[in-house]
Amino acid sequence: MFAGIFAQLATAVSGDDGPYFPAIVRTETAPVIDAGGSIITPGQPVERPCMAQVDAVTDAMRLQDGFNQKDVRLIVLTATLAGALDTTARVEVTAGPNAGLYSVQSVARDPVGVGWDCRARKDA
User: Fold this and answer.
1) Which of 43, 46, 66, 119 is in Cβ range 3.0-4.6 Å of 106 for a Cys bridge?
2) Using only C-alpha atoms, what is the Rg of the chain?
3) Are the CB atoms for 98 and 120 separated by under 8 Å?
4) What is the pLDDT of residues 43-90, one digit of tens each?
């Protein structure tokens, strides 16, 4: 409930200047494999719309294994995304000053459950 209310408020005040911008979470379904280990049907791409904010990383993120100085904090509003988010995802922020494709390096839910709090790296 709170996540939905927050998402409505955040998107209502996010105009052309943000802080939340339209984004697309890109994942892939698992491939279908036969008993011999051969792929019968490859995984299919899945795109899910959402709203996301690109921000500076937290001190806790800086201490994570694999941290890179170019990493960013990516906050995806849970109420705007159907399903969960994990490190296999790539998030394309489609508008705003930080528009681009980001690979998710780590992900956690914020304590209130309003957003997915991610450390992400912009793809070249």
Assistant:
1) 119
2) 16
3) no
4) 999 999 999 999 999 999 999 999 999 999 999 999 999 999 999 999
